[in-house]
């Protein structure tokens, strides 16, 4: 990337208003609110940048500069615990405390999405979709105005890691609150609650068994607050953790780098095409349920059914669009990433 030219006199007003010069580029098209714009930078193809992708970015209306507002993101609080362990009660307690101190709070949870949890947790595909919807809702809601509380079981270590990547990506602090209960206590609470809120016993037992306990030695489970049923929520410590602590530094895989090198785009194009060709060829001799080895990837494509060429093309295009906005300089991982993307997208 070439060094940034100074913005010169025309943009000093923006700089005085507290905007940082983010990059210099050629702006091709801007919508009326200046939050979506099509830009071209060096050798990359024009890319549509949205306010969501480029948090806090704003382009200057009269020149080829993009500005970034150095605002603070509001934190994410993640709850976890057995089913019926008091997660929603603790979320509300925290919400009330924060609102009393004048902050806005937004709670996201499976009950908010109105799902039939007994049906969802009995079906791994539906559960995965629910986790995806919750994560997307968190991503949409993380902003500078509201504290987001994710009130759902969050019992999978890998999922908590994904949430951690998300907050690293948007550069906002987070913390985890683990509601600790003995399974038999939660089970009694479950049996005493309204019938339409109850987990059936089979699902309850399965969720308890699947629970992956948080460990504060893991970056994604830290800072960790544990709260037993008769304990008070450590509200002050939680506030200190989320408001007076810096967000974890971004790393290469989570940092926003919308300006991709030509070599990266070339590799992205080549590698994904190779994977598509391999899958299409392998399908000639495979049946649903087979696993396909792909050159350059340690991950394998799991084939639940035969995929058409147009579907593979569409998935490839989606992956390319996403990856262009979230480039990972580790080109050697592209094949694996695309295989993972295919496995997650094909049902
Ligand atoms: N500390 C507590 N002492 C006694 N009962 C409690 C306590 N916390 C929660 N409960 C009871 O447990 C039930 C479930 O509470 P809550 O909805 O907060 O749990 P949850 O973990 O969010 O549940 P779910 O897994 O369904 O989302 C409620 O009926 C509530 O009365």
UniProtKB/TrEMBL annotation:
GO biological process terms held by the UniProt record: regulation of transcription by RNA polymerase II; tRNA wobble uridine modification
Pfam family name, one: KTI12
A GO molecular-function descriptor: ATP binding
Source organism per UniProt: Xenopus tropicalis
The protein's name: Protein KTI12 homolog
Gene3D superfamilies linked: P-loop containing nucleotide triphosphate hydrolases
PANTHER family xref list: PTHR12435
Homology family: Belongs to the KTI12 family.
Keyword set, alphabetical order: ATP-binding, Nucleotide-binding
Gene name per UniProt: kti12
């Amino acid at each position: 990337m070439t060094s940034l030219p100074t913005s010169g006199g025309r943009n000093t007003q923006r700089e005085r208003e507290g905007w940082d010069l983010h990059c210099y580029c050629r702006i091709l098209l801007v919508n009326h609110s200046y939050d979506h714009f099509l830009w071209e930078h060096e050798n990359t193809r024009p890319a549509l940048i949205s306010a969501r992708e480029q948090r806090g970015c704003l382009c200057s209306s009269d020149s080829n500069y993009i500005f970034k507002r150095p605002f603070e993101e509001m934190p994410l609080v993640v709850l976890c615990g057995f089913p019926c362990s008091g997660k929603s009660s603790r979320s509300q307690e925290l919400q009330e405390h924060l609102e009393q101190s004048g902050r806005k709070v937004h709670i996201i949870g499976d009950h908010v999405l109105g799902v039939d949890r007994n049906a969802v947790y009995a079906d791994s595909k539906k559960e995965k979709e629910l986790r995806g919807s919750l994560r997307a809702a968190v991503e949409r809601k993380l902003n500078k105005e509201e504290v987001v509380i994710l009130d759902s079981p969050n019992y999978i270590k890998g999922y908590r890691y994904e949430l951690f990547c998300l907050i690293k990506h948007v550069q906002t602090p987070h913390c985890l609150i683990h509601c600790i209960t003995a399974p038999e206590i939660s089970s009694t609470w479950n049996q005493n609650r309204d019938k339409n809120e109850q987990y059936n016993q089979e699902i309850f037992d399965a969720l308890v068994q699947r629970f992956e306990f948080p460990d504060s030695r893991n970056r994604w489970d830290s800072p960790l607050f544990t709260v037993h049923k008769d304990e008070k929520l450590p509200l002050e410590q939680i506030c200190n953790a989320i408001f007076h602590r810096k967000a974890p530094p971004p790393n290469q895989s989570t940092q926003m780098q919308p300006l991709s090198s030509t070599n990266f785009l070339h590799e992205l194009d080549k590698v994904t095409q190779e994977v598509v060709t391999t899958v299409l060829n392998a399908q000639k001799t495979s049946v649903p349920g087979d696993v396909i080895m792909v050159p350059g990837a340690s991950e394998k494509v799991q084939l639940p059914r035969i995929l058409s060429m147009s579907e593979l093309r569409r998935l490839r295009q989606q992956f390319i669009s996403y990856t262009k906005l979230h480039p990972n300089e580790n080109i050697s991982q592209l094949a694996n990433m695309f295989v993972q993307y295919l496995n997650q997208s094909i049902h």
